[in-house]
Design goal:
single chain, 488 residues, mainly alpha, Growth Hormone, Chain: A, two-stranded antiparallel sheet, 22 helices, 2 strands, globular
Amino acid sequence: MADAVTDTGRPGRPDSGGRKGKAVGVSIAAAVGGFLFGFDSSVINGAVNSLDSHFGLGSFLSGFVVSIALLGCAVGAWYAGRLADSWGRRNVMLLGSAMFVISSVGSALAFSVPDLLVWRVIGGLGIGIASVIAPAYISEVAPASGRGALGSLQQLAITVGQLVVLSSNKGLASAAGGASQNLWWGLPAWRWMFLVGVVPAAVYGVLALMIPESPRYLVLKGDFDRASGVLERVSGERDGRAKVEEIRTTLRKEHRSSFGDIRGASFGLHPLVWVGIVMAALQQLVGINAIFYYSTTLWQSVGFSESSSFTTSVITAAINVVMTVVAMLYVDRVGRRRLLTIGSVGMCLALLLTTVAFSQQQGSGEDVALPDPYGPLALVGANLFVVFFALSWGPVMWVMLAEMFPNRMRAMALAIGTASNWIFNFIVTFSFEPATRNVGLSWLYGAFALFAFLSFFFVRLKVPETKQQTLEEMTGDTYRRPEAGARR
């Protein structure tokens, strides 16, 4: 792989198929950060009940242990863009890899609640870094014609990471006879759930050393020959030096991203930055992570056995992967806005179905159940929601954040949008268990349905179409005419 994508010197121009293959290869390598993002953010799913019993967590502490990593994610996302501009994309990927390793080992060997919280925050910092660097790097090496599909690799990697960790959790719990039972070396299965994360974290670090540096970072640092080589060999540019000059023109005001680049008349920020903030918030407010962080606990709470709950969570994660692949196939053909609107309608209807099912919940406390046919109905609604989310808001939000901002504000705007995503992820995740007990699942999923409904109108009114536009064509005025890109 190193020979295929090296960024030293100026290579000759291979055939277009070869160039496309190299862009795909380096994008997949970068997207391993997304795999860790999904893996580490969902590993808590199978361990949360065991953590509750082992450490004697109450409702508040249980929600805090699950969600505190998300505060680390917000901080990591906030600083990732500036670190990437100072250190380079690859070096920041290596930093994220190291944090994943430390978090996995520390969480597996945690002996008290305070040190478990520390390791969770460190893992969150790594996730936040990966959530910014992977889509930014991919958007900078991908050709415009395939940037939507390659940008969607981030979300695909997230979904694969969720599927792998949920499958791993189920396998470990089954092998031990329960998540709290001892497995190897006297360690219970839930500790091994965390420890397994060391393997993909190490792989991510190795791959980060093998991919070329981003051409836009190289131009920023004045290394024009290497930038030209990467653009020709990886991105498929026929004239790398001409593209370098185009990038230099757009980066003259971006030598160091600052708040000055994103200021505007709309409450102090450029309107397009607000579009990114709201879009990132809505992706979380529809409730996707209420399913992926708590699905095992959720299904147990309404009468499913532990084994059946693990199996149901794995099936949901598999559906997420398959539909993300479908989104990748169509995002560059159908367009970003159309997929988002289709997803909003589908999510709203699926969440309403789930709301109706949970309104029939019987019992209280830990003795609750959904009578027939409402148990299967809740499963159908939840999985239909995942289908439409994975087809639209899952991958497309990350594609849009990585590509819709002008070069002069991209690093800062992407960091702010991603931090918004993690902050609202924290709000939804932290409040899920208390809200479930105090207002009930029916009202909670009804609220998610409302946000899905509102997301439809937000896309129609505010979100620009960026299909087939190069990053240098993103001038920042498309927010005034959302259909502009669609007419290209």
